[in-house]
Design brief:
Layout: E1 2-8, H1 33-36, H2 39-44, H3 46-60, H4 67-81, E2 86-92, H5 98-102, E3 107-109, E4 112-119, E5 146-150, H6 160-169, E6 172-176, H7 188-192, E7 197-202, E8 214-217, H8 220-233
Parallel strand pairs: 1-2, 1-6, 2-3, 6-7, 7-8
Antiparallel strand pairs: 4-5
This protein binds adenosine-5-diphosphoribose.
Adenosine-5-diphosphoribose binds next to loops.
Length: 234
């Protein structure tokens, strides 16, 4: 049985119409990380931060999963039905819900999710579709202490102990559509060195490409289905 861990980044959702962060027209070319993506930013101006994530949450209603998301869901389905003798785990840095909408179930969001908020009083993370404002009450405890359920710079990503355990146990690590500039995700290829094969699928080489055995260079919607077909044909 082959165990595969796939790490995805913003590049896999770009062809669905969601911007990446560091491409020329990316989110960080329009916003300053220090204004919208740190705990300090939220303390300083929660309305600005909420507006940033409200806009991104609303955008989700206008996009759909693309061929890359659908191909990964197809591979997971093949494992479930026994057509493919393997196990697939998706660890995503993305806060969108396109993997789940494509049908993937085994998905861990290490940087959080847009369709949840987090209450800093009761610790609950209820599902959330609408706008969230600084005075919006928590649906669980009623206090106006909600924040986006997103991991900001300087905070510890979610699920790290079980992500590390899955990386230690995997036979193949695949990184799709990520620039390899943000840690700890950018360090995963180095973590599996010596016990797993590694593949990078990206529009261009990432900052950690030298850590990978193999590359497939091109748009995710073309390369990921090709890689999945290859897997299923073995
Ligand atoms: N197909 C494949 N790869 C693509 C495509 C595409 N259509 N379009 C862009 N890419 C690649 C880019 O070449 C780049 O290497 O996707 C990568 C996107 O990189 P980033 O914008 O840096 O996004 P990501 O790596 O996911 O960022 C990591 O940084 O800002 C934080 O928390 C945020 O989760 C995010 C983290």
């Amino acid at each position: 049985m082959e165990r595969i861990v796939v790490l995805t980044g913003a590049g896999i959702s770009r062809e669905s119409g969601l911007d990446t962060f560091r491409d020329a027209d990316g989110i960080w070319s329009r916003y300053d990380i220090a204004d919208v993506c740190t705990p300090d930013a939220f303390r300083r101006d929660p309305a600005l931060v909420d507006r940033f994530y409200n806009d991104r949450r609303a955008e989700l209603g206008r996009v759909r999963p693309n061929a890359a998301h659908l191909a990964l869901a197809r591979l997971e389905e093949a494992a479930r039905t026994g057509q493919w003798p393997g196990e697939l785990l998706i660890v995503t840095q993305n806060i969108d819900d396109l993997h789940e909408r494509a049908g993937s179930r085994n998905v861990w969001h290490m940087h959080g999710e847009l369709l949840r908020v987090r209450c800093t009083s009761c610790g609950g993370t209820p599902e959330w579709q609408a706008d969230c404002l600084p005075h919006t009450p928590c649906p669980l405890c009623g206090r106006p202490t909600l924040r986006p359920d997103v991991v900001w710079f300087g905070e510890i990503p979610l699920h790290m102990p079980r992500i590390e355990a899955a990386l230690e146990a995997c036979d193949l690590f695949v990184a799709i559509g990520t620039s390899g500039t943000v840690y700890p995700a950018a360090g995963f290829a180095a973590l599996v060195e010596g016990h797993a094969d590694t593949l990078e699928i990206n529009q261009e080489p990432s900052a950690v490409s030298t850590r990978f055995d193999r590359f497939m260079t091109g748009p995710a919607t073309r390369m990921v289905p090709r890689w999945v077909d290859e897997r299923l044909a073995r």
